Amino acid sequence: MSTLKxxxxxxxxxxxxxxxxxxxxxxxxxxxxxxxxYGCGEGQCGACTVLINGKARxxxxxPAASVGTAEIVTIEGLETRGEGEAAGRLHPIQQAFLDEGxxxxxxxxxxxxxxxxxxxxxxPHPTDAEIVRxxxxxxxxxxxxxxxxxxxxxxxxxxSGKVQG
Amino acid sequence: xxxxxxxxxxxxxxxxxxxxxxRYEFRERPSWDxxxxxxxxxxxxxxxxxxxxxxxxxxxRSGAAQESGRAGGGRxxxxxxELPKEISAWLHIGxxxxxxxxxxxxxxxxNIRTSLTQAVAEELRVEPARISLVMGDTDVVxxxxxxxxxxxxxxxxLELRRVASVARxxxxxxxxRTWNVDxxxxxxxxxxxxxxxxxxxxxxxxxxQDQAFSKAVVENDPLTPPADWRIAGQPLPKVDxxxxxxxxxxxxxxxxxPGMLHGKVLRAPSFGAQLVSVDLSAAQAxxxxxxxxxxxxxxxxxxxxxxxxxxVGAIKAKWNEPANEPAHASGGSETSPGSAPPSTAxxxxxxxxxxxxxxxxxxxxxxxxxxxxxxxxxALTSAAHRLDATYSIAYIAHAPLEPRAAVAxxxxxxxxxxxxxxxxxxxRDELAEAFHLPANRVRVLIPDTGAAYGGKHTGEAAVEAARxxxxxxxxxxxxxxxxxxxxxxxxxxGGVIEIKAGLTPGGALAAWEFHNYNSxxxxxxxxxxxxxxxxxxxxCDSPLRQGSYRGLAxxxxxxxxxxxxxxxAHAAGLDxxxxxxxxxxxxxxxxVFAAAADxxxxxxxxxxxxxxxxxxxxxxxxxxxxxxxxxSVDPSTRAVRVLRVVTAFECGAVVNxxxxxxxxxxxxxxxxxxxxxxxxxxEKGRILNNHFAQYRVPRFSDVPQIEVVLVNRKDIPSAGAGxxxxxxxxxxxxxxxxxxxxxxxxxxxxxxSGRIRSA
Lengths: 165, 759
Description:
The structure holds 2 protein chains of 2 kinds.
Chain A: E1 2-8, E2 11-17, H1 23-30, E3 49-52, E4 55-58, E5 71-73, H2 92-100, H3 109-122, H4 128-135, H5 145-157
Helix pairs in contact in A: 2-5
Chain B: H1 2-13, E1 53-61, E2 85-93, E3 99-103, H2 112-124, E4 131-135, H3 152-179, E5 186-189, E6 192-195, E7 201-203, H4 204-208, E8 212-217, H5 241-245, E9 261-265, E10 274-279, H6 281-284, E11 290-294, E12 297-302, H7 305-314, E13 316-320, H8 350-356, E14 368-373, H9 376-381, E15 385-393, E16 405-411, E17 414-419, H10 424-434, E18 442-445, H11 460-472, E19 476-479, H12 482-488, E20 495-503, E21 509-517, E22 532-538, H13 554-571, H14 576-582, H15 587-600, E23 611-620, E24 623-633, E25 640-650, H16 657-677, E26 682-683, E27 686-687, E28 705-710, H17 729-741, E29 747-748
Parallel strand pairs in B: 1-8, 3-4, 9-19, 15-29, 17-18, 21-22, 25-28
Antiparallel strand pairs in B: 1-2, 2-3, 5-6, 6-7, 9-12, 10-13, 11-12, 14-22, 15-20, 16-17, 16-19, 20-21, 23-24, 24-25, 26-27
Helix pairs in contact in B: 2-3, 13-14, 13-17, 16-17
């Protein structure tokens, strides 16, 4: 066992981990942040996506001990933090997923949303083809892809008008 | 109230499964073989107290709701002395006016938590936000066979409308009593009862306050007709959507209990492998690790997943692997069902294997089914156009993103298990059997699940977690890895379909002979008019563990039938849609063909060079579907791209058009995988592609433009929609590829490499 200090969702957290513990396991089993999902354990499905220094990363392939002092954001950390009027307000991408109904079983949704946050930071005004390329590492087995593309498009443009289909 | 509840308890405790499920809905035997000693435990109360308020129980007459609520006949057998009763639903209005509805159905992404809430809101006349559904908790919900077969909407939706409608009447009755007026002048609306004469009104919450009123009803009130729906029929968003975009929803793998350990099971190296010996000493020596060996089961519980994995890795086991022994002759049918898959079975030779392992015995209707009318042989011989062909269907995996998982806890002799399953009561019974417990000593809870697609009928993870938890004397969580999910779950059956068909000179179907080997009987009947037909399903010994998959065999049977119909149209020189119309009387099916064709502009637009249009359709589980597809084929690489899909669907009165569109679109995307590239590869008792890196599922880049056309028939009772929208896609694409290239692809998946191989 070794002691780690991680910066997660704006707070410093201390935890004890077995050697070889992944960030995914640390988040879920040590810190109770179960919004990040296990889907395949090999970086193929994207369900475990978190942000590390603002970039989408596969937490299932990231050793917890390798993160150092980098800032980790999970799905639990996307809502506006702190006190005041804005507290608890959804991130625009979370809101866009709600507005488009861009989920079915929603097991992939945390990873999809964090992948989209990272993608839109790199490319704030993407075409649909760019959204498809940017999000292609994440699997939605329920096949909600067209609505997810619409949600990312909506978040990018702040547009309204729900996609049909 | 207590007397009523007692009778309900008595009815339910006598739970008995007398309903014959559809073939392949859950034919696999449980995979455990523990040798625990007898466990005799006293029964405990089946129900927790519901609290004050008003409760309505729906006691449906037998046959009214065979899937939801138990079928007739208790343990002593039904002799006809009295009507067998079944409780199919109940509803409770508490002190605060909160409405709680109890149902054995479960939510796994098909959006029934929302559509059932709408049904209750509609009939009870309350806003959906006041309603919560308790689903799939075996201690508090009515017995239910399971959530499959697209049965929730035609059965449970109706049952909940009935129970809510009675509850509304109870509210009116209580108000009439309170005010001492005739109930006829009272009307219920928006959570209140209003007196039309005086204008005064009273909230449901007030009426339910401190009551202990219960009502058990046998028959339903007249229900609100779909044309008058105000809440049902609307595109209500997913009721708990916010929990899913914030990560708050707890799926089974997210459940945490105090003192919980993590489990890991030692898997056999190949199917059918027998454990010869096992040495647990290395695992035993690890601090905090509890190793378990019971029968063929070997596993550990440990304080962390990492330690559990290391401990299992340290266990030394010797296996006898029949699948790895030298091959014997592949012919014959000596293999008995459920035995180890012979070494000769492989994905490269599925068709040959199945044809060589047709089950000979068994009654018609289970192992085989057969329907025949007219003189098929004679009509085939005298047909003006004759076309025979064989189709093959690969085994595929459900691959739900949430793998099988369970959290089990033993407390005071009672076993409680959280797990993702479509059949909470069947998993309860499986646990009761595995651990020699009465059913009322087992509680199964199903958190809304990260999908199932027909793949979660069984309770493997639940049984394994419970076994480990018993040994560890602590709660245990077990989450299958992706590799385990791909290997040790069950598969959609592979199959072989043989069709012989004949046409009259004018292009009318004269003869139709259809044989399905192993993939199943769902959707096997043709909707087209054929005087002479022979349709048979042949049960085979499967080389792999197989079971339900979204749509069952309707996908395979529609692929073969609608591909063949397309070939027949070309043989007769007719437009594929015109040919179907010519042979089709079913108005509802004609209507969806017309709706899809119209949106697609079938017949009004011509495909570009290298492009092709295809159409296919059918009817299954009360849903009518037609799908049009456009593909392009690269002239040099022969790579196929699906460009556009239009699916028209009709399932009676639409309960939630937004959820329905989502299901139809998703079904098309899922159908794309099985239609084009998904296939399980296996050899010598091993799955060769048990990772997403090797088993390709549809991704963003695979998805064409998908347009959904809803045909809303408010005059027809609602049918389910989770499965049938899938069945038109593969044949529509195959027919489009044929239109573009003249190449007919007769195997699912059609394009494992993405390219047409033969010219």
